[in-house]
Structures are given as structure tokens and as C-alpha cells.
Please model this.
Amino acid sequence: MALFDLVEDERHDILNEAIELVHDYYTNTKNRHVTPDLDLNFVRRYVENGISPSKNSYKEKIKYVFKGLESFAVQIAHPSYFGLFNPRPAFSGIISDLFTATTNPQMAAWSHNPFCYAVEEYSIQELGKRFGLEHVDGTFCSGGAEANQTAVLCALNKHFPSYLTKGVQSLSARPVLYCSGQTHHSIAKAARMCGIGLESVRQVPTNDNLEMDVDHLSRCIQDDLTAGLLPFMIVATAGTTGPGSIDHITEIQALAKKHSLWFHVDAAFAGALCLSPKHKSVLSGIEHADSITVDIHKWLAAPMGTGCFITSHPSILESTFRITAEYMPTEGSQNNAVDPYVHSIQWSRRSLGLRFYMSLLFYGWAGFEKTLNHHMDMGKALKEKLKNHDWKILNHTPLPIVCFSKENYTDDDIKKICTHVVQSKKAWISTYPINEKLSLRACITNYATNENELDQLVLLLQEAEKTIA
Ligand SMILES: *Cc1c(COP(=O)(O)O)cnc(C)c1O
Model:
């Protein structure tokens, strides 16, 4: 017997126990507290105590770990988690991860796992088609941050091919990319990691609706060109992380085209809507993007760590990431297959596309559509319910994200209300500044959220308001 395998009967028992734990949690997520006590030292002791030899049955050990997961975490799978784009994972994703962890697909070279390779290829092509791209290539990755970094690298390569060999030193002046003050900070991080630095990132101001001010963008580009700088990329966001605002994709794309800049749409959250014929018009213009970020682990309910980068330039990824390594399998050039390791940032990588593909098998495109439309309906319902209780909606978005307050509430009041809701353990919401005034933020991130949870949230807010009266 190999030690790490354990004995067959014992293993079977543990698996059964694990399945019971998973089944009970998934079925009764609602009965859990949404939020934990944040006593990190207590949790550190819990972690240390787990190593104790007194817990000698494997069943006890896995129960101990599951209890840790249930007790010391925000339960993002709970339907009263009105949070930060984190989903309840679709059941298909759980099965997919169990299978993936068991067979351990290695996605660096296609020939190690033609099945998972074909699954990812199919998924990317289908997603790209639904965005309306004429040509489609792409890669699964760890999340939106990695997808955005991939975009910056591709844009640098497209504009300055010498960047690949000679680096930024070979550029005659500072390269510049444009985004807005509401853009996700992973773009700034990407600029650092690509070696162009934060000074290469122009954060264009936003209008009152927190959308990128396109006239301002146009002036910025002109000024930079006049100053001899090297504009190379514009990043528009479809669904900003705070207020869910959607930049004017078509107008920004026209500017990008005029100045021959790479046009990236960060649609980490709202990109999912390309699967809803009813709502996809909010992404109108995205079909002309050079590249798109969409997180499968947000609105499409895959387990954490499933991002996707899609581009309409079929050879840009390979030209950006191709490298040769003698120890790698060499079947790469057969069958029009490109090894993922010469086509993306990561090298050894787990299979990610399977999480999406498995959902397609279980629920079909119609299932995604129905679920997305449900989120949109719940978003609308929440906005109505809040308005009926005299809350003022401060953000402007068709997405199911609400930033709200009341005329007389100070930032401090808002913080207190939020804390009261979170500490009740019955729901999780957050705060976000809208035009420099703090508001409460609630997002429908969970396909299992229904009117009941919305009503409960409105009641909780009412209770919380009493504490500041
Ligand atoms: C969440 C988010 C990101 C970062 O994605 P991760 O999956 O957390 O890496 C980037 N852009 C936007 C608009 C996001 O909402």
C-alpha cells in the first residue's frame, strides 16, 4: 500500500463521509451563518489544534476541516450573501472539481490531456461566438487579474514587437494605456508586472454615472501624442466592480480604432450576459473588441479560480507567449493544436474549462440564460423594494448591483448600518463611495437568491437604521 492512498476500505468510508458533509452543506447552506466572527487568533489555534494526534480517525479529521470551512468564513454560497461577484458554485462545478482533483489533468501540453484541451478549445470558441467576435482565440486562466495582464502583454506585443525581446528599454518613449477611475486595480498591477509602471496608466475621470468620460479620454490621448508619448491601449469596463457602471463601449472603440490602440473590454462580471439574448445589448459593441476578460467564477458560477481571456486576434497569444523548452512534449504543432504553455502566462495548469463545460452539459445554454435573467429580475426587485423603503439608489447600471443611501446619512451612519447587517450574520453587504459619499452596496451574486432573501435584507436594514437613530 502506498501511504498517501490509505487502505481501500478506509478510503471508501472517508469518501462517503465527505459526500455526506458536502451534501448537507449544499442542501442546507441557508441554515448557516452568512458571516463569521473575525477572531483570527482563535482560528489560528483551531488550525494548530487540528494537528493534534488525539483526532486519530480520518472521519474526525475531515469533519474538523469542514467545520473550519463552515465556521470561519463568509459563506459566499449563502443566498443572503449580497457581495463582491462571488457565486454560489453550480453543483456541476463541484463534480467537475472532484473529477479534476482525482485525475489531475496537466494542461501545459495538449497531448497530456486531449480531452480537457478539446473541452477548453470548444468552450472558448463558443463564448467568443456569443460575444460576436469574428475570429476567436483565448485561454482559461486563474481569474480576471491574470486575464487583464494577458491583455496588457498582448497589446504591448502588438504595438511594440521589440518589447518581446528587448523589453521596455527598446521603446523610444513612455507607453501609455487608458482606463477610468473605476477600472479594476488589476490593470494597475498588470502595468507594474509588465514593467511599464504605474505612470503608464492614465486613469481617465468618470461622469456622474461613473462611466469613463469619453471626451476626456479623447483629449488625454491627444495630449499624450503631442507630448511624444506612446499610447497603445484602452481598457473599457463592462460592469465596474463597485457600482457596476458600463463604459460606452462603442464610442471608446471608435477612439481606439482612430488611434490604432488595442481595445480591451474588462467584462469580468457582466461578460456573462453574452449568454442572455434578453440582456446582451448592455454589451453592445463588445464584438469589436481586440480582447475581452470574462470571469467564469463570477456570474457563471464556476468554483473560484476560473478566468477567461478571449481575443479576436488568432495568433497574438502564441506570438506573445511562444517559448521553446527541450523537455516539453513536441506534438504541439500537430492537428492545429497549440500547447497551452506557449499560449498563456501559466505553465503547469489545472483543467479549468471543464467547470464551464460540465455546467453546459447539466443546464445547457438555456440554463445559463434562465439563471442570468433571474439575477437581473432579482436586481430589479431589490431596487424597487429599497425605493419603497425610502432608500435612494445612487448608482446607474442595468446590472443587479445597488448602491443606496438616504439623504441625511453620513459616511459614519452608512458604516454603522453595514456593520450591523454583517454582524447579524444573516446577510453580507458592503459599502462603496459614490461621488465621494459612502453608500451601502448589495449585489445579486447568487443564483439561489429569491424574493425572501431580498425582503429579509430590507428588514435587516430597517433594524440597522434604528441603531443610528
Ligand atoms: C473581479 C474583477 C477583476 C479581477 O478578477 P479576479 O477574478 O478577482 O482576478 C477584474 N476586473 C473586474 C471588472 C472585476 O470585477
